[in-house]
Amino acid sequence: MASKTINIKVKVWRQKDSNTKGNFETYELSDISTDSSFLEMMDVMNENLVEEGKDPVAFDHDCREGICGMCSLFINGHAHGPDTLITTCQLHMRKFTDGQTITIEPWRVGSFPVIKDLMVDRTAYEQIMQSGGFVSINTGGVPDANAIPIPKEDSDEAMDAASCIGCGACVATCKNSSAMLFVAAKVSQLALLPQGKIEGAKRAKNMIAKMDELGFGNCSNTGACEMECPKGISLAHIARLNREFLVANVKG
Amino acid sequence: MTKLNSKIPEGLIKDKWANYKAHQNLVNPANKRKLDVIIVGTGLAGGAAAASLAELGFKVKNFCYQDSPRRAHSIAAQGGINAAKNYPNDGDTVYRLFYDTIKGGDYRAREANVYRLAEVSNDIIDQATAQGVPFAREYGGLLDNRSFGGALVSRTFYARGQTGQQLLLGAYSALSRQIGLGNVEMYNRTELMDIVIVDGRARGIVTRNLITGKIESHFAHAVVLGTGGYVNTYFLSTNAMGSNGSASWKAYKKGAFFANPSFVQIHPTAIPQHGDFQSKLTLMSESLRNDGRIWVPAKIEDAKAIREGKLHPNDITDENRDFYLERRYPAFGNLVPRDVAARAAKERTDAGFGIESNPTGEGVYLDFKYAIERLGKDVIEARYGNLFQMYEKITDENPYENPMKIFPALHYAMGGTWVDYELQTTIPGLFSIGEANFSDHGANRLGASALMQGLADGYFVLPYTIQNYLAYEINNPRLDPKEHKEFQDAENDVKSHIDKLMNIKGNTTVDTIHKKLGKVMWNKVGMARSEKGLKEAITEIQQIKKDFWSDVKIPGEVNTLNVELEKANRVADFIEIGELMARDALDRNESCGGHFRLEHITEDGEALRRDDKYMYVSAWEYKGENTEPELHKEELKYEAIEVKTRNYKTA
Ligand SMILES: Cc1cc2nc3c(=O)[nH]c(=O)nc-3n(C[C@H](O)[C@H](O)[C@H](O)COP(=O)(O)OP(=O)(O)OC[C@H]3O[C@@H](n4cnc5c(N)ncnc54)[C@H](O)[C@@H]3O)c2cc1C
Ligand code: SF4
Ligand code: FES
After folding, report:
1. How much is the pTM?
2. Could you report the predicted ipTM of this complex, rounded to two decimals?
3. Are residues A213 and A140 part of one domain?
4. Ligand approaching nearest to the C-alpha of A68
5. Architecture of domain B268-409
6. Fewer CB within 10 Å, N or C, chain B?
7. Interface test with B, best of A20, A72, A134 (most B CBs within 10 A)
């Protein structure tokens, strides 16, 4: 794993705020260690800009270990970049070659307006969660955790669904800008568990209604979302969501 | 004379919390609607508290700097959460969890708080399960447990390597429900800038909207800080990039005492640093020590050959491997507490046995070869698959085939705002919960106990204790910040602080100064401390402070999104926190837990406590910009536990 350095060009989307039109700017970077993460490369770019007295590029990030869901970015046409099953913050520069031009864009989704440069507003996700992404219980007065045994397979599958980090890559990748994979992950997780099953149909109905209201598109089962999801959330969860939704409609 | 009153309830340790609850004041339902509570932070502590208080009927305003409450740094916790359920029937009890936590903290935590923590631990597991948190299960459908450092029983509940994520998403779902119901007003991308005190009581906060730069005031009958820890003082740590100590520091400057600032935890198993552009360190969960064996080459020439790339670790035979934890601590082996494991790694690398091929020459091995031979690759993959994947993405090496390389990294702040039994600071009406307070972990925190504490504070402690305060507030009407001088003054102070920063217009970037601070902290206020080093550190940090205030460069404008300004605002506080940490470490002329003074070690290199002189919590009071802070001491009394020397060599 010999570390080496590369020289690259980065073509970055710059946009002052949500009301201003944006454009690409290109910056040259030299001696980037291939052991650096992608965001460390962007730190170097920003340090250079600050040194020059220029405005650094705004992008979202926090945990830098692929779990908080804060980082985003379309890198060379792929949500979270060319590697699979990772977020942008886990992408490393060894995936790029000397002399390469790297294009960096924000999520481009009507429901996630750009705030500045590469930062977008994902408040719509919050609203979907508030419409039903929970079990309606209060703190205290709940049964012992082992009172209801749950088949390990169900619990494992619920855990698969619960791994969603709310990053928005699925929406950004979908040609319809649908939030189905995100919604399905939550509905499916809770539908698989007895604790969540009780409100399953109502939850599916409310979350889908909210998603539609917020202007996300319909799901046409293309499957692009699954391909780009950093947590490998499976399309099978969308099927389960559809079942819950059907039940909700039958019940009225 | 000390001004500290820890308000520990009367009675036997096992009765204190019940007694407290039986006699405390509560607020009646009709009055709850009239009372506002501000909670800063949406991590396990803040998120759980905001949801629980809103469910009870209080009007809650909740703040975080990320774009969603779900992204608080609790999300990153991997390994697990402790509880005294004793599901495995291996002898666990509330007392044993309490005992292990006090012992793990090297007898520097407050007994009554820790006992309460152990007591409510079981409720947390019930609560999370009811929320739909998919904890790991056995084939029979019941919950699975694993063991963690510093314990002889398996009491750690987990959800793959993503326990913090799942627990936080549980709290977040409860919080989302309350936001949807209109009981919580949520402010994302909003940073606390100051705390407003009216007539000696916390009455609100001043915030900055991180998108628009707008400075705003918010009133409440009580203010709660759940803002996490301050170990980003060291620049490199396992914390998120935005984790900061500023909220606690603003509270300190307004009169809240800061306790045990020098007690920080260095975690033994992080991925070693790769170079100067490194922005953070990635933790490899302590749970890995259940199945991984830690070693370095036994022969110094082998270590050298490895560093030079001439020898592969798989070519070193078992006889030539030094499993130094198993050698030094036969009873606990690879499962010794974190401070012990971290120091042992440093001891080996300082002695020349480090294995990393980069300029640091640091690093030790964490090897899964033996566990894979014993249990099969499938089992190891099921247990740690996502951690192994994370490791491979970062290092480009396959940990199923090669031993992992690990090294200690800054991880957790045991110190924090001083609070009494009610989690109230020395400012009436200001509370502090989760990692932001100092209360439960003494001089060293055991693994899987921060999640426990954050959720205990947020779900089951604060929602009670805060009512004992709020019961006296029912006749106090809401204040309009626009009509009160205290709020206006605080806003003006914040604005002039920001202007001062922006007007420096120097030549050095914020990160450059932060990294410089980090180096001083790591070298002199890190894993091994001495009087000389600490005195030097104080002088050097004071110089860094001067450099910062005369030469920091912040481009951009005030009334807009300005990331460099956000960072500068936090680094200004980190510098001052760093100085107080060094001061505290200097005062504490003993070794205990994570605080290791080179002047006080036993013959075989272990920490030497001085209980006769230092069995106290140090609580520092701010005395003004150019005056030294005043130290107050809260004497620690152990009534339910016999104080012993920590021993992980024999059981
Ligand atoms: C990588 C990692 C792994 C860990 N693994 C484990 C584990 O396995 N088991 C365990 O028990 N513990 C673990 N811990 C420790 C544990 O995760 C933390 O101590 C705990 O989650 C802290 O929770 P908290 O609610 O106190 O703070 P946090 O989760 O850090 O939340 C802080 C909140 O405060 C807000 N905030 C901070 N500053 C401001 C400000 N100035 N203005 C406005 N808002 C602000 C943030 O937005 C955030 O919402 C781990 C820690 C790390 C870093
Ligand atoms: S489903 Fe996948 S891509 Fe979509 S928000 Fe969740 S983690 Fe991101
Ligand atoms: S920064 Fe947290 S997932 Fe990328």
Report:
1. 0.97
2. 0.98
3. yes
4. 3
5. Alpha-Beta Complex (3.90)
6. N
7. A134
